[in-house]
Amino acid sequence: MDGALRFTQVSKSFGTARRKVTALAEVSFTISTGRITGLIGPDGAGKTTLMRLAACLLMPDAGTITVLGLDGKSQAQAIQSQIGYMPQRFGLYEDLTVRENLNLYADLQGLAHTERKERYDALLALTALGPFGDRRAGQLSGGMKQKLGLACALLRVPRLLLLDEPTVGVDPISRRELWAIIQGLREQGVSVLISTSYMDEAERCDDIILLHEGKVLAQGPPSAFTTPLEGRCFFVQSAELSRRLLQQRLQAEPAVLDARLETSGVRVLLAEGAAPPSVAGAEWHRVPPHFADAFFDRLHAERASPDPVVTPTIRVSPQEISKPETVLSVANLNRFFGSFHAVKDVSFTVHRGEVFGLLGANGAGKSTTFRMLCGLLPASSGVLNVAGQDLRTAPAEARRQIGYVAQKFSLYANLSVAQNLSFFASAYGLGGARRRERLAWAAEEFALAPYLAQNAGDLPLGFKQRLALAAALLHEPPILFLDEPTSGVDPLARTEFWRRINAYSAAGTTVLVTTHFMEEAEYCDHLVLMSLGEVLASGTPAEIRARAATPERPNPTMEEAFIALIEAHEATLRRSR
Amino acid sequence: MQLQRLSGLMRKEFLQILRDPSALGIAFAMPLFLLLLFGYGVSLDAEHVPIAVVVEHPSPLADTLIGGLDQSRYFRPVRFSDIIAARTALKEREVNGIFWLRSDFVRKALDGEGADVSVIVNGVDANTARLVESYLQQVWQIWLLQQQREQASVLTLPIGGELRIWFNPALRSRDYLVPGLIAVIMTLIGALLTALVVAREWERGTMEALMASPVTMAEIIIGKLLPYFVLGMGGMALSVAMAIGLFAVPLHGNLLVLTLASALFLLVALGMGLLISSVAKNQFVAGQIAIVVTFLPAFILSGFVFDIRSMPTIIQFITHLIGARFFVSILQSIFLAGNVWSVILPNAAALGVMAVVFLGLTLRRTRKRLD
Fold this sequence. Notes:
The complex is a heterodimer. Helix content of chain A is 34%, strand content 26%. Chain A is an alpha/beta fold. Chain A folds into 4 domains: 5-224, 3-Layer(aba) Sandwich (Rossmann fold); 226-302, Alpha-Beta Plaits; 323-401 and 479-576, P-loop containing nucleotide triphosphate hydrolases (Rossmann fold, 3-Layer(aba) Sandwich), CATH 3.40.50; 413-476, no CATH class. In chain A, helix 3 (98-108) runs parallel beside helix 5, helix 14 (417-427) crosses helix 15 and helix 18 (541-547) packs across helix 19 (558-576). Chain A starts with a strand and ends with a helix. A 4-stranded mixed beta sheet of chain B has the order 2-1-3-4, sandwiched between helices. The two termini of chain B are 24 Å apart. The relative contact order of chain B is 0.11. The interface between A and B is medium-sized, with 37 and 30 residues.
């Protein structure tokens, strides 16, 4: 049996002969029929290239691809009429309504007019898009767009469905709904290949292909990944130390591979054969391993020489930290785009040395709020006070107090690392000895010295992010703004990133961060949960989790809490209508 | 080729055109703007040009010469008492030229030893300068003829050269600018708009989704070609209607011939647009290439504003690579001279060759692949 999809020794590279980038190197695997196969790997692992090869949109440099028993090279047209493919940025026509998009793809897939009504009804019911049939696709939320994209790919039930990161940037509720649809398809005998960078989604798959730097590291059911880790995962709590301190102590232990904040304690992955080290007052509870632990373990083993972990250094005099001082306050902040109310009456305060998180799905108003705080976007109304300066009257003065790392890589890709740093030093007005000192600091602190002459655009993603952070910290700002800093970064780089951020905050830097990774919320001292421009909840991670606790679920995760709070909020909206 | 898929693609394209204000802007607002600009704003004729007149020693003889200026519709004489004031006026561009009769003009003229008339023309605007120069010469010549006639015999009928202008007897620049604009407008819709909308499909990722469906590349190309063909012919109809209705440009040739020639040129423009979009996959680059390779040449090298015969030889050679050049020749002859087959047929043949080359290259170049 061929399976639904088979790659044999497939290689693919891009670029010119001089600067060749290998996306996939001798990849071989088979996907069995009627199962959900997860393609897991960090950004740049080659997931999208693999998907495009499977959809016959790219030709391999070497090797053969067999899709549904057909040859990928010679029978592309036949393959494309039997598969469903949803690219990462799904190609919806934003000027067209939901129904018009469906019509287009029904025409393209040759769905007979007589079958349409029944099929549309079924798909609109499945995706809960029924009431939005006449709405333009551009006006749908991120999650609804993804569901419409999926519906378009499902008009004719495909034998093989290829989904390229369908859940990126989608809120937890829509994510859950998308998965329910995908799991329903398995019942109909559809084979699904889905790529994702969310570890919890891996566990919903029947089979997993772990892809890293263009190579298949491993393939097997989730249990094949987690079983070997049995007995190495622990949940650690301490009565003596705060969660954050406990995590720092644990990370310093050589026996500990990874220590992540989770609910009221720290989740620890021990090195193979290591015994739990004794840390002040720590209670160790053995817990079942998750796929995320297995992924971390594999990547850790793969990376022969891990980057040197530099102890973060930052200068803030200690006496400044002692008093809880408000460094940023927002009151009744509003922002309209035309008639669209993007940010509704948002108020909060941030204290010195805090890690303050703005949490929410795409379109919740996080980035808009953020841009107003940085003075990049004027507020429609409300009070914005940054480091004692009113942003509306003294924007330049307030801006000098902040460092900003944008969501997208916003450095000059065709300048070298050293040129980028030196440009930002000039932009912040650093000169003389201070300039030399800060540039040296940036190179050392972020281990950028070996890359100084390289073009910033050619750096690996993790290093691009370090460079962006270095540039934002050159002028030693007391407040640091990070907009979705870890999206697309692999788990190792993410752990390292948070280690740095926590060290800076411990040294007195105030950090504001937006994220849609719910587990990252645990790293914040204070959270604001946003949905549709409004603040749903505000408090410490523990307080927010406690708000969603029920007798059936006394200890919800952040994601469960988020879903529960949004659902409750929507219910009140419906009642008030 | 399957009709259901093709009609689906075309319906989508029309819906997008109707809903996207920028597409409608390029298709209809830009042509309207260009037509009004060239119809009303830009004129290559010199009329009522202000001219400084300096007569140092007034006399009846000088008056007859100046009288010729007054009567000419090309000039608006402004009197200055001395040459210094006139020069200042020229420098400040209050006048475009100076007509200077020195104090010894009458004496020399009557003595028959050859009187000088000084004409100073502002050469900053070379086009107007040349016109002013030749018009002034005409005034001067006519006056001389009159003087000769009066002095020789009162009864002699006026004799002299008669200038006749064919095809555009009124010599209105509007009459040849407005037809030429049709070529520019159709280039705009055919090449620029088409290149942009295909690049937009790449940018938004819709092309990737289309390609993974069972459509063929030929269906995608024809699905773009036909809607923009209709739009382009609409732009052409708008331009012709405005040319005839609003600007009273005569149409001596046949409307059907005009339509067929336009359709042929539109295929060339669409071919260029699609070819550009197979190279440039984002809207900015596609727009830049389309403007530099199609729109600007159609403006400058097509002979629509600037006469090709007065260009350097090498540039004249290059104009043969520009489809608009052939179409402008066809347009100007259909509008101003009629169905002159000896002009229309060779130019149409050149357009046909270009259409086949561009569309053929597009079909060859575009494969259903992302790399």
